[in-house]
Write a structure and sequence with these properties.
150 residues, alpha+beta, Glycoprotein, Type 4 Pilin, 4-stranded antiparallel β-sheet, two-stranded antiparallel ribbon, 1 helix
């Protein structure tokens, strides 16, 4: 049986087990430090989707107001067909990250909310974002009574 060895100018080259373990440990530490930032970035992207859907529903409300002289209001969740009269595609799909609802609607004002589903990571679950007629988006955390909207 022949043994193959890599040599360079008469010296054996390669990495020792200790060197490989040190590199693996360094890569693991960098990954542990980067993971929270990755999760935060992903959640910001999902929040961007919610803001887009909230503005889309708000625009549908304004169009409905121009057609009928009143804002669309219904006590039903958007998941139960609350957007059918606004001619919008329902954003509450099976793979959606937020549940949308039209709240506090009357003939002169409305509030639309997007509540993060419970499948979200711990600090982001059940956070609620609302948009009103003027387009102001605010955040509340219903599980924390001390968390003011921002």
């Amino acid at each position: 049986m022949r043994i193959f060895r890599i040599t360079f100018k008469g010296y054996k080259i390669g990495f020792t087990l200790t060197e490989l373990l040190i590199v693996i440990i360094i890569v693991a530490i960098v990954a542990v430090l980067a993971l929270p930032m990755l999760i935060k970035t992903i959640e910001k992207a999902k929040l961007g989707e919610a803001a887009t859907n909230l503005n889309l529903i708000r625009t549908g409300e304004k169009i409905y107001f121009l057609e009928y002289g009143t804002f669309y209001y219904d006590t039903l969740d958007v998941a139960e067909g609350g957007l059918s009269d606004l001619n919008l595609e329902n954003p509450n799909k099976d793979n959606a990250y937020f549940d949308y609802k039209i709240e506090n609607g009357d003939s002169s004002d409305f509030t639309i909310s997007a509540t993060r589903k419970e499948t979200a990571p711990s600090p982001y679950a059940n956070q609620e974002y609302t948009i009103n007629k003027s387009g102001t988006i605010s955040k509340t955390d219903p599980t924390n009574p001390l968390d003011p909207p921002n």
